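batch_manifest entry 22 of 60
target: Proprotein convertase subtilisin/kexin type 5b
source organism: Dicentrarchus labrax
requested by: lab member K.T.
priority: normal
notes from requester: please return tokens only, no post-processing; we will run our own comparison against the previous entry in this batch. if the run fails, retry once and flag.
--- input ---
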Amino acid sequence: RAPGWRPGPHLLCVLALSLGFASPPCNARIYTNHWAVRIAGGADVAERIAEKYGYRNMGQIGDLKDHYHFFHSRTIKRSTLSSRGRHSFISMEPKVEWIQQQVVKRRIKRDYNPAQNNIFFNDAKWSSMWYIHCNDDVHNCQSDMNIMGAWKRGYTGKDVVVTILDDGIERNHPDLFQNYDPQASFDVNGNDMDPMPRYDATNENKHGTRCAGEVAAAANNSHCIVGIAYNARIGGVRMLDGDVTDMVEAKSLSLQPQHIDIYSASWGPDDDGKTVDGPASLARQAFENGIRMGRKARGSIFVWASGNGGRSRDHCSCDGYTNSIYTISISSTAESGRKPWYLEECSSTLTTTYSSGENYDRKIITTDLRHRCTDSHTGTSASAPMAAAIIALALEANPLLTWRDVQHIIVKTSRAGHLSAPDWKTNAAGYNVSHLYGFGLMDAEAMVKEAERWKEVPSQHVCVESADRQIRTIRPEHVVRSVYKATGCTDNPNHHVIYLEHVVVRITITHPRRGDLSINLTSPSGTKSQLLANRLFDHSMEGFKNWEFMTTHCWGEKAAGDWVLEIYDSPSQLRSQKVPGKLKEWSLVLYGTSVHPYSSLRSDKPRSTDSFTDIPNDEFDGPCDSECSDNGCDGPGPHQCINCLHYFLKFKNNTRMCVSECPSGFFRDDRKRCKKCSSLCETCVGSRSDQCTTCRTGFHLSEGSNTCVANCADGFYLDHGTYEYLSFSISFSLSSLQGNKCQMTCDPGTYYNGHRRTCEPCHRACATCAGTGIEACTKCADGYLLEDWRCVSTCSTGYYLSEQTSDNGQVQRCDHSCYECLGPGERNCSSCVSGYNLEAGACVVSTICKDGEYLSRHEKCHLCDATCFQCSGPEREDCTSCPVTRLFDDGRCDIRCQKGRYAMDKQCHLCHHTCQECTDEGPDNCTSCDRDRFGVARYFFQGQCRDVCPEGYFHSARKLCESCPTDCIICTAADHCLHCSSGHRLRNGRCVPLECSAGERCTDCHHSCPDRTYSREDTMVCAPCEDKQCVNCDKSQCYWCEEGFYNFDGECVDHCREGFFVDKESQGCEPCHRACRTCGGPQFDDCDSCEDGFTLKDGECLEATQLALCPEKQFRNSKGECEQCHSFCKTCSAAGKENYRFLTAQQTCMSRCPSGTFANKASSQCEDCSKGCAMCQGAEQCQRCRSGLYLYNGVCVVECQRGFPQGGVCQLCAPECASCQGNSSYCLSCERPYLLLDHSCRSNCLEGYYAKETECRHCPADCKECNQDGLCKRCNLYYFLHDDKCVDDCPVGYFASEKQQECVRCHADCRSCDGPGLDDCIECRNPKAVRYNGECLPQCPTSTYHDKTTNECRDCDRTCLTCSGHEPSSCLTCNTNRRKDASGHCEWFSQCPLHSYMDQNGDCQKCHVPCHRCSGPGKDQCFSCNKPHFLLNTTCVLECPVGYYAEDQDERVCERCHFSCQSCVGHHSVECVTCKPGFFKQGSSCVEFCSENHFGNTSTMVCDRCDPSCNRCWGRSNRNCLNCREDYFYLRKWGQCLQSCPPSYFPDSRTKACHKCHPTCKTCGDEGALACQSCYEGYRFMSGICNSQCLLGLYSVSDEPDCKACDPSCLDCRGPSMWNCTVCPALQILSDDGRCLSCCGNETRHDDKPIPRECCDCMASRGKQEPTLGTQTYRKNTHKSLVFVTVCVLLILSVGGGVFLFTHTWSKSLSIAPKTKTGGYVKLDTNGSNASKPTSSSFGEYCDPIIECEGDEEDDDEDIVYMGQDGTVYRKFKYGLLDEDEIELEYDDESYSYR
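--- output ---
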């Protein structure tokens, strides 16, 4: 807002009054230059209309269809008059259905700021979160919300998304960033995606961050608190830090309704007791759309704080947000169960959570701005996020709950507990309910248990009863009573309501003073709801115009019957009583169901219900007593009820009587029965004598034992105490707060524990105490300091130890301007809060840097990069705005946008993901194409980048869809057509016209006749074949038959006749061998059956004579007769007579076997030696080898594997050698684990060498140690490591760190440097900068001068304020109490001597003892100090404290260490001794972030070096990489950087990572099933595809398609086991080790079988490209298309492969594939993460995303081992569509301020 003066609403009021107009108090409306417009026809129509009338279309309003946000730049931004002009004619456009200029609405945050709010105090402890765990004896905790009970059942909010609608959230807060969800966040005020709050000195925009921490602060991160739903995703909408309009609210309420589950709002209209306001038309429609279509039509959950107007006597029924049936209105209670002072009461409140009450009550601890925490969050603002978090736990237990289910569960499970309210009542359905607390305190454990078994309630019916329009006068001090007999719409089944949920009363009243009215509604069951109470400050004369009051108090009751509306007028003295009010009309809207909502559940009853066991025998038709419930009665008396409405007394005669309250001396049990207390008790909680709460007259309550006694026992005293309580600025007293009680007296050092009824020891830090814990001390023990109300051993932040004479001293709070301090006063600060700088011990407001400068971490202005106009850091990528000549592009200011972006409004925006370059957003504005960001090739066509060109175009190398030649329909190039248009035919790749004979019609001409026809030369006509099964024929015969028929002698037959077989190649019938009757082939041994006289044997038909064998030592001669062999032969084939003893292979008998064989005496045969053997004694005993082979262990080998040849025999190597040459110790390779070095095998490599596989290789030059890839890790002496090489001098931009022995990069400000910090520069990168103490600044600071020779700022002499040189005589002006003498020196000027000062009277007074010079009497007013003291700011100390060093022994001054040092020996960054907490030691410096190639070791707080293959890492090992150096590829599942990817992975040159191949590919070149390079056994490779030879569900066991069924867990596979799956059933996921695993989170799978112990986190796995351990990275918008393509390819290949196999192997039977369940399957490219137990995966212990489901708890303390470079996790979502309903403008009273 402009700071200049402008007339405002107050001026208008003055003018109006001066003119004498009598008007109510001025509340002028502020019109903005924004409009909400409803335009039918879509975005293009809206854009055209906006342009026509000079508007700018800012886009659709949230998720509201056809509603657009128009902005008019030439209209006044904020005006009290609505805008007029040419642009207002837009309302006359036919397409414009509705338009509204937006007005500013006042909205306030519902927290409370106490009078003293120390925003710097921080005591964030888990033990202090009293509202989560009820174990605090000090504060006597009575009941809690059972949050830990829900946690123990495993519910922490996982996968539930909660968004805080507020002033933004600090998304990088240490407690929030882990669960931050960018998709659930938006900045409506700034119209961008970042919800970060706006920072200022008051920290007013802390509200949203505080609410977010309550919901989802991370657990176990050693920071601040634990959120109630600490695993939920948290988002924020920044919408309250600016003008709040109807459109702003609608945008916020409709943000991402399919992604966000719960919206939490802790704001509303002014809680001033006089405002009546609610959501306007757009916000109402956003609510309705969210309920109708949000969360996939289950309904968005809207949680709302009920309001903080209690002190203003406000009533939340006048708040249209909390009063809506669509919101869950949340009330607050203090820890004690008392009503907080700020609480509003109304009948629309549904439930309650904790907050605080009075000043002394404990408040809510939560996250706060600037990465801090607070323990002072309060108001209903604190309660609503708690409720949202508890609902998140219930949604995790059952994500299918609808918005009404959630409200039902809250009603059923909330409990009154210890909440103190005067109006608790039980309605006719048995629910306890109150106007203060709704149905009571939320119970998280009960909610999740109810959610686990919940069945959706029946559909909601809405019964709008007819209005009562009888006008009634409302007279002062009179009651107007109107009775309406409701039917519940019994005549309309779709609207019939029997069982109630919400009841809405629409009412119109005129009245001279609205605040005097109170309104009650009584249900037919007698439950009274106060719809409105008197409002002291509501002077409005407007009354109510169709206002909707809502009550939940009738929940579960019957709808039909008499409803009574009562209006009472309590006249105040502020109005004229002459003008009465009037009730003009009222009507009922009943919401509920026509059947019992829990009829599908077990017979569960509300917690407070009870019924009698006896059942009436006879029905009673008369009226029942008022204390009877809806179940009726047996008679008219209270003792004849079947069920009691409230409570009952049971008498000795076994009769019962219903009563509204239990009488004195009785207590109520869980079954609504009034039971008798012990005889001495006045009131009690049980029947025993030790369960009294008050005593009868004459007796006293003994504290601890809770018994009533006549006299106090020893050790007790009678307490009649009166306790004074101070609440803010109002004090009041509560007399006899304790009543007459016997209080126990405990010894010092002990306290009385009321629960255990004994005195127990105090905390060791306490000398005396009031309870347990260090916070309950009243006096501290020795060695401890009293700090406010705690005893501490050392001072906390914001405190200092004052010098006292006592031993233990006293802790004092620092001055409010300091964050930390060393002493009293504002000039002893040692550190400041964010937004302030420390200067000379004082905290001053931070420097505001000029344009072109940024504020560094230690609050100094530095120059931006020359391209930036404004920036957040020194780099070129740190720009936040640009000069007019440049375009803003994602942190850079460029002359033109990069590829993939387009320029608009001086910014570069992302093109559509299909475009390489574009002119605007959307897929139709591309100007060039290439591969899109998902790797899909795209081709340019008419402004689009298409993956497939349309018909008539081809894919050109220039990535264009270029036109095919004329008359060509399909082509592959401009000169190569594949298919021609009608009337043309192909000739050599070109289309030529068909030329036909004269008189013929060319439409049917053919170059050659098509199938099933033949050409008749005489008529030039294609005639059909005579045989209908013939495909190719001529006039006389058929040549080729259709499938299933075979050619036999020119005809097509369905089977070949006997004596013929089917030739598969010719598909014809061919004759069998002459001996065969039937056969399967042409050969003599292909017979299937034989002719008569032949016998079938081994496929051959033989005559009988051929079957008989000759006896031993005989053979069959040519005549078929048996003839005798030679006497030497045992078997023979002829009658040879040679005289030999051994049978050779040539069937001859020899006395001596030839070379290469040996004589086997057992078989009398010459048998072969082993292969390559020339002479042997047996098959395995070679004696001599053939030439070229060597004898080794009786076998001939080509080369000696573990030896060397000598004389044709292998001699053995030394034991450690795997191979050798020449002699046994000259090794060529080594046995494992030995390594080869200089032909010798060693157990480890020498220095300067590294182990690579089985040998030691030399490291690079001057390298002392290197890694397994030969990359240097440590250099020789006098060399420095840079880019994995050892250099003797570091390049420009780096400095040589001698301690680390490496080159470390300079800060971005430095061109050259001598350290890593921004104050270590030797030369500045920006030529405009000047250097001061090593820091590059825009200009020289005060007390320095510019040395132009070195372009350096040098300090003036200590005596000078400003100077022209470094000499004492160069002073231009002097410091305080000095003046310049004639020589230019600045001398002390004081009329008083040393050690004294001049007081106000002009007298000289002595300085404080240690001061040498001073300005006053205090010890903190010194200018210099006496020995041995040192000057610290303005105080003299004996030694410099931690963080300071004594710079000058003469001046004796304590100078501050470098900002990164905790202790030091000098100012420079390399002079640190120890580092500040949060800083790492790197070399001699302390750094907040380690330099590149290093990681911060959190155990040692030292920067350790990564493995040289890593660019970033989280540990030293080469398996701890986060990304890789050049020429290496990242394998995320191993956390390793590799030079080449392992088998079944491919390198992605774009992402520099190894990605998993498709499961069917053995090796591949890209992702997907179409990029295979080789296949597994059983697959056939075809053009990049691995095609299974079997049908789906089968796998091949050999090259021939012998198919067997997959494991039952697989839908398809490449092997028999459960580890060989390639496709999984629906709702299962393919893990990296090849298994199909069920999804975690449900107790059973989709087939009702129990899930296995190992399961997949499917929500984290679906859609991701590379799963990782702990963090999932999602690839945007590709999942659906990839799944579709993969499924199609697999189905086509499976069907095609099946047909192919069937036609070629018809004789082999195939198994039938198992049926697959409907629903398909999901294809995932997973690479996995570490499994929890070993698997048989080929990659060892790795299987993502397998997790243990049983007995495992997530360890939130685990180190994150992978995080994306920008920390972003992408999650997919869908937008819902809106209906075309008209917007109802019934209630649009614009005089109300916006809530």
